[in-house]
From TrEMBL:
Highest rank taxon of the organism: Eukaryota
EC number: 3.5.4.38
Domain CMP/dCMP-type deaminase residue range list: 27-139
Keyword set, alphabetical order: Antiviral defense, Cytoplasm, Hydrolase, Immunity, Innate immunity, Lipoprotein, Metal-binding, Nucleus, Phosphoprotein, Repeat, Zinc
Organism listed in the record: Pteropus vampyrus (Large flying fox)
GO MF annotations in UniProt: cytidine deaminase activity; RNA binding; zinc ion binding
Record-linked PANTHER family: DNA DC-DU-EDITING ENZYME APOBEC-3G, MRNA EDITING ENZYME
Protein name: DNA dC->dU-editing enzyme APOBEC-3G
Family recorded in the similarity comment: Belongs to the cytidine and deoxycytidylate deaminase family.
Length: 228
């Protein structure tokens, strides 16, 4: 690609903000969303560094109008006017998975913007408001890849979206039980994204939960993802 103008310095998140908000064992009230965009040319993914950064939800503690991070991000994407003749892959690393309304907005965006693929890696599952399961399933049906952040994604975000001041090589400090929690959430998400299955056995010692659990662990074993 021809070299474009030098990108403006993008803002990075400070370390403590990342650690506080992406910790998959905590329940912070804010939502942070880190994003990056790649141009897809054949088999190649070309990073577009002008479209890389983070947003956070607004109004949760300022008393102003509430806007979820996904909604703010979709506003940003619209302002970029990505060329409809080209193909893009947008990856979001989000501290809480989308609520039903945001999943709906993202689904509508994908339906209208067939030139954009979307991947969402969530640190935690946002289950506070009803309808989130159906919302996540709709999002998947619209073509989005929805997954839970593993250690690999936490390390990737730490390297790419966090300000390390003088020490650029500072490695990500994982918290206790990060991996165990990530795997639990991943299994839970797999269960949410699966269509409902009822298994009947004879004699009737049936546990639907157990049946789901079998399916979820199998899905988890089969799960493969591209690195971000
Ligand atoms: Zn939302």
């Amino acid at each position: 690609m021809a070299a474009g103008p030098a990108p403006e310095a993008r803002s990075l998140m400070d370390e403590q903000t990342f650690l506080d908000n992406f910790n998959n064992l905590k329940y912070p009230r804010k939502t942070y969303l880190c994003y990056e965009v790649e141009l897809l040319v054949g088999e190649n993914h070309i990073p577009l560094d002008d479209y890389k950064g983070f947003v956070r939800n607004e109004g949760a503690d300022e008393g102003s109008e509430r806007r979820h991070a996904e909604s703010i991000f979709l506003g940003d994407i619209a302002s970029w006017n990505l060329d409809t003749e080209l193909r893009y892959r947008v990856t979001c690393f989000i501290s809480w998975s989308p609520c039903a309304d945001c999943a709906d907005e993202l689904t509508k965006f994908l339906t209208k913007n067939r030139h954009v693929n979307l991947r969402i890696f969530a640190a935690r599952i946002y289950d506070y408001l009803q309808g989130y399961e159906a919302g996540l399933r709709k999002l998947k049906a619209a073509g989005a890849e929805v997954a839970i952040m593993s250690l690999q994604e936490f390390e990737y975000c730490w390297k790419n979206f966090v300000d390390h001041q003088q020490d650029e090589d500072e490695s990500f400090p994982p918290w206790d039980n990060l991996v165990v929690r990530s795997e639990e959430l991943s299994q839970r998400l797999e269960g949410i994204l699966q269509p409902s299955v009822l298994v009947f056995r004879w004699p009737s010692q049936v546990s639907v939960t157990a049946a789901h659990s079998d399916i979820m662990s199998q899905a988890s074993r089969e799960k493969r993802r591209d690195p971000p």
